Amino acid sequence: MNGTRVVVLGAGIVGAACARELALAGGFQVTVLDRGGAAEATTAHGEGNVLVSDKGPGPELRLAQLSRRLWPEALAAIADGPAGSANGPSGSADAVRAVEWDPKGGIVVATTEAGADGLHRFAADQRAAGVRAEVLDADALAAAEPHVTRDHTAALHYPEDAQVQPAAAAAALLGDALAHGATLRTGCEVLGARTRGGRLTAVRTAEGDLAADLFVNAAGPWSGRLAARLGAPVDVRPRRGDILVTAPLPPTVFHKVYDADYVGAVGSSAEDLQTSAVVEATRGGTVLLGSSRRRTGFDDRLRPEVLAAIAAKALRLFPGLAGVPVMRAYGGFRPYVPDHLPVIGADPRLPGLWHASGHEGAGIGLSLGTARLLRDLVRGTEPEIDPAPFRVDRPAVLGALAPSEESA
Ligand SMILES: Cc1cc2nc3c(=O)[nH]c(=O)nc-3n(C[C@H](O)[C@H](O)[C@H](O)COP(=O)(O)OP(=O)(O)OC[C@H]3O[C@@H](n4cnc5c(N)ncnc54)[C@H](O)[C@@H]3O)c2cc1C
């Protein structure tokens, strides 16, 4: 592997995490390329939950559990700085502070009898898969979240859920990759491929060709479009999500709190609007109210009816938020794959091309496990979790791209 040249296509959190793993592994010359700036696309337009609570037993949960273990390890290593680094640990420690890592835990609240039954069944399956899920009675819930609705039928506490500030997290990962020898090129769009003997040998950009031995497609919701430009399309599409941000409030919400039908909305493939209440505070005191899911291509207009639906559901969970000023709203595009699993691995149709994409609403949390898996696959070492469910040549990934979304 000595001197294997790798170009990571996309400087969002997934590209940053992949670049860091490969740079730390040694033996790779890593370049990260982005048409815009680092971490300014989807990674800067979501929330920063690092969740196990919303995942049922299966490959995504295993990737989430691996990632959850890696987050504190990676942040501690970044804070220490690279051995013998002239940058010194203090700059790295500042970068890690900005990440706002907060293992605050999640609380899921059901408000109907059917919701309570479903939540308890879901939690029982998760416990069998190693997730900590603790039942909260009414008193315990009131102690943990004094402002949450009293009108609930069940509540579960997931102590492993955590939160980061996503753009700062990506910056910290990328900064560490750079400190370990990676280089970053921004404002450089990938337009096409150069191949030799059926192998991808260079990407064509507006600034000329960039040759390498391996290319990692980490272009988030644009991964489908980028892969098509390279001649190996994958079915990754945008799935819009919007968030309302309140003005800074006195401490009101202490965990990540969401309603039990959130898991159903995440797992649904419906094109029309899905909303469920997801409420959490940030370190700055603002409260984020989410979330919505819509498949509308790359249409980035905010819709009043979507924002109204998000607000209404949040108020059902936290009635006391009525009257609180909303400061702004924003949204982004989750990288969606029809079977709701990321795409991680080599592209069997085009040697030299790898993918690390399609994380939908969990790419912040899953970035570290994805990067670790990718590193092991590239090096040919045994990964900690089974990579097969994430492989590129599965029907959901090699299906046709929706033309309207591709051309949007
Ligand atoms: C409303 C909302 C809430 C969310 N909440 C959470 C959450 O709480 N927890 C969580 O884990 N996840 C959450 N997510 C999902 C998470 O934000 C994404 O899964 C994650 O940011 C994807 O990161 P990425 O690096 O794959 O993509 P991106 O951050 O989009 O990065 C891709 C990069 O590729 C670049 N690129 C694209 N095309 C090209 C090209 N042709 N040439 C060069 N560069 C190119 C882009 O400029 C971009 O910088 C949320 C998303 C949304 C929208």
TrEMBL record:
GO MF annotations in UniProt: oxidoreductase activity
One Pfam family hit: DAO
Top class in the EC scheme: oxidoreductase
UniProt keyword Oxidoreductase, yes or no: yes
Keywords: Oxidoreductase
EC number: 1.-.-.-
Protein biosynthesis found in the keyword field: no
Domain FAD dependent oxidoreductase: 5-377
Protein name: NAD(P)/FAD-dependent oxidoreductase
